[in-house]
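Researcher: Next entry in the queue.
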Amino acid sequence: MTIPFPAPGDPPRLSEQEFDLLLAAAQPRLRGYVASILGGWSDVDDLVQETNLVLIQKQGVFEAGTNFISWAFRVAYFKATTWRRDRQREGRVVFSETAFQELAAHAEERFTTRDGSSETLAECLKRLPAQERELVEVKYVQRQSLVDHARTLGCSAQSLHKRISRIRLALRDCMRRQSHSERS
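Model: Structure for this entry, 184 residues:
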């Protein structure tokens, strides 16, 4: 198997781990965006999951250094458009196309212009040792039980809970330092 080398001028790509960190950091904003354009919470989890699947499938087209949140919102918008069309066929749509587009524009502005906490978190996650990043991914991206993961590692669940607590504190401190240095 040959591994293709990027051609000169090809846009930079993220590693799989960098992409996973951006995706994990984007989840709260993505959920808020989707809830805003759906007008409620009933189908948010399903739509966010579908959006995440598309983002993962298309991660190779995402250019490093561009706005990940805007890209994720665009994918979610198209998923929500399909969701709305399906509800419209069922006679369950309560707002017009114009209202839907206005909700989407407002939600994008609201959740895109938020402080850079997702990007700061992603940057702080990159600074963690590999084992700690893996533990964060297991707990918050894969949503695996720490008890189950402890069994896999052959350690106690209590020790993993203590480690994840220390990691959260380290991330919080890192984010505070980053926000202070950005203001200076």
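Model: The first helix runs from residue 16 to 38.
Researcher: Noted, moving on.
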